[in-house]
Amino acid sequence: MDLWQRLDEVANRWNVLSHPFYQRWSEGDLSSSELAFYAGQYAHAVDALAAASRHAAEVAPAELAGELRSHAAEEEAHRALWHSFAEAAGSDCDAAPLPETTECVDAWDDDDRNLLPTLVALYAIESAQPAISDTKRAGLIEHYGFSAGNGTEYFDVHVVRDVEHAQSGRELIESQLDGADVDALVAEAERVLRGNWTLLDGVENARD
After folding, report:
1. Which CATH number do you get for residue 43?
2. Number of structural domains the chain divides into
3. Which pLDDT score is estimated for 1?
4. What is the pLDDT of residues 156-176, one digit of tens each?
5. E strand or H helix at 190
6. Which DSSP string corresponds to 108-119?
């Protein structure tokens, strides 16, 4: 089984669309306070993704750094889009992180990773985002009083851009794979996806 098949298996195992919190989101079962609380917690993950993207650019060789810096700048801009959603959901994004949120942040933004495991971590996160973003956007519009483009911009962007980010990330990973420890790379993917699930555990356990 090659790396990509193993990454697909990990993604299926930690598919957060199966998490009870996102299932309740899709069913319209979240209270307004739960949605706001989630927005404040996941803001820390959005920040961590931007930081991980910056780290990838910092540790990349010169011939790859330009592309990765562009990616990092885009993720940095997406923080403002998340804040727009959070404001529409009633959160100011200043909430202290739960322990589970901190576990996710530590998994997503790890300065001790070198380039290849960082790319794999980013790929694992971003390749899952289009389906997640599409599902969350649909729930916001159907159940929570949002309209397209009014607080949904973060999700609108990630439905499209993370398809492209995942493809470019896959190409970069392929270029770096010679002699790589595939088991270690799969473990990094599992770590970040499990971190996302754990963040949702914290939010779900804090429900009112």
Report:
1. 1.20.910.10
2. 1
3. 59
4. 999 988 888 889 999 999 999
5. helix 182-205
6. H--TT--HHHHH
CA distance 83 to 46: 10
Kindly state the tokens that stand for 159.
């439905």
Cα–Cα dist 119/45, whole Å = 17
- Residue 4 inside a domain? The answer is no
How many secondary structure helices (H) and strands (E) does the chain include? 8, 0
CA atoms within 13 A on the CB side of 127: 24
Long-range contacts of 53-58, Cβ-Cβ distance < 8 Å, separation of 24 or more: 53/122, 55/109, 55/110, 55/111, 55/113, 55/118, 56/115, 56/118, 56/119, 56/122
What integer is the mean pLDDT of 16-40?
97
pTM above 0.85, yes or no: yes
In which domain, by residue range, is 40 found? 31-205
What's the pLDDT band for 145 if we cut at 50, 70, 90?
very high
Note whether residue 23 is domain-resident: no
